[in-house]
Amino acid sequence: MNNILNGLHNLNARVIQLAGEGDIEEAVNVAQQAVELGIAHQQAENDIYANSVNNLAELYRIQGNFAQAQPLYIQALNLRRRLFGSEHPDVAQSLNNIGAFFLTIGNYIQAKENFEAALNIWKQLDSQHPQVAISLSNIAEVCREQGRYTEASKIYEQALIIQKLYLEDYPSDVWRTLNNIAVLYETQGRYTDAEKKYLEALEMIQHLVGSEHYDVAATLNNLAVLYNSQGRFQEAENNYLQVLRIWKKLLGSEHAYIASTLNNLANTYKEQGRYTEAEQTHKHALSMRNLLFGSEHPDVAMSLSNLGDIDLIQARYLKAEKNYLAALAIQQRLFDSEHPDIAQSLSNIAVIYMYQGRYQDAENTCLEASQIWERSVGKIHSDYASNLHHIAKLYKEQGRYSEAEAQFLEVLQIRIQLLGQVHPDIAFTKSEIAEVYRMQGRYAEAERTHLDALAMRRRMFREHQDIAASLNNLAVLYEDLFRYSQAESNILQALTLLKKIFGANHPQVASCLNNLAAIYTSQGKYSEAETVYLEALKIRKSLFGEAHPDVARTLNNIGELYRLLGRYTEAERKYTEALFIRQSFLGDEHPDVAKSLNNLATVYAATGRYADALSYR
Questions:
Q1: Nearest residue to 171 (alpha-carbon basis) of 193, 140, 195, 203
Q2: Four-residue CA torsion sign, 422, 426, 432, 436
Q3: 563 near 602, Cβ under 8 Å?
Q4: What is the pLDDT of residues 406-421, one digit of tens each?
Q5: pTM value?
Q6: Count of H helices and E strands in the chain?
Q7: Helix, strand, coil share of the chain (percent; to 5)
Q8: Which residues are within 8 A (CB) of 78 and not within 5 positions of it... i.e. 6 or more apart?
């Protein structure tokens, strides 16, 4: 009998070793052997066998095999209760694991209930026990996911007080909570506070374990995410590359952590407009995740969704839709129908429909996502607000300004309740509201709201693309008001800032140039306008190729300039190029296609080709 138990113990130890090395598939095989060995030799009422069952459940959770994980967690919990009673540390550990399982699948109520049950057991043993702090941190994580940031912050601080009592014995616990607090601050837009916490965690862990350690790599990764949010892309990229070097040295060339870092690095490339590098890096991450986890895993769905984002930016709408639908199909097979990831995929698909002019499909899909988020996390949540934001933008695109305004104002109230009065998302929402005001001709309200957003962004950031966005929005408003001097001043400030952040070859730079050229056109500065439009066109073609909706937009603007100058042959050529691109990407029923047809009709009428003009109107 002892030989059997020793065999089980050794198999369990091997499982932990393999999982630590990132070989999840082999770890599952060994864990299954352990469970089968226990059953075959009638050891199913033994604590070592309970550990085997718990290990297998944890591995299934990591693999995304939730249907098989849940009953094993319950089996391990019930076995431990029979063996030890309800107040034993092993029972608390099972409750903690079940809580983590529910957190993974987005069932926050069950997650919190199990974490709190584990906390109560540990408190009865010792109110200052390290596991009390871990349970508190887990509860705080649930609160953070639910958008209850103030409550999460207080609970994290309680955990940190306990963990600092055991700093020498459990330094990673202190490091982890410092990181969690930093993530919370980052979520709230408290970037300076977040950076201080990350750097405190980094300095502490480097002092204790040196520079090449798992916790060091994880902190550098978190700092990189923060830098990316702040537009500090080079710092973010440098950190990610350093993290990759550490992971590869510690874990080999293929590991879940490496795939995650590649995913993050790809997102930094995307923000910089380096789409080819972004796509290649996301594909590398996807390939690694398929190898590590198989095709049915949440991380595989994430990679597919990220590739969909790259396709969307490049107006490869059918390919983007295919990737988003593939991600959604995986999530629907893995998760309950009310899982937030399913709602996010639906929201992504709705954005594609909006760009394609499929407004009813977009609205229906957004509303479906909203219902899932409302049922799973409630209305006072960042994800619910983000989806509502998509619905508001959809209404704005359709000219349904009153409905758009109402939705944006609801988004603003939710975000203020979650994030306070000063946050990047608050400024972003105010900018959108200001644009709705502008489109309705409510110029005084638009200017006041845009200036409010700009002031907020300047309080939060020193140099950031969001400041440039506000300057750009004000320039467009001032152009509408014929205040050309102010318009030109604002757009040139935005352009200088964007070039400093991104360099000259970036989509936002091209958009800014496009707006500058429009301002020159409004002032009759046609030569300057043509030069700037051609510069914008060159950038967009270099980024997206010869055919892309943004390329079509600039071609259309150049055509409009040529029409104003009476250069009708050149205008017709540009309008026709724009029309062809729009029809290819957007289909014949899109509003932008209608605009191109109308523009061509205007040229035909101006050149006496009235029959052609009538056929295009």
A1: 203
A2: negative
A3: yes
A4: 999 999 999 998 888 8
A5: 0.79
A6: 30, 0
A7: 85, 0, 15
A8: none
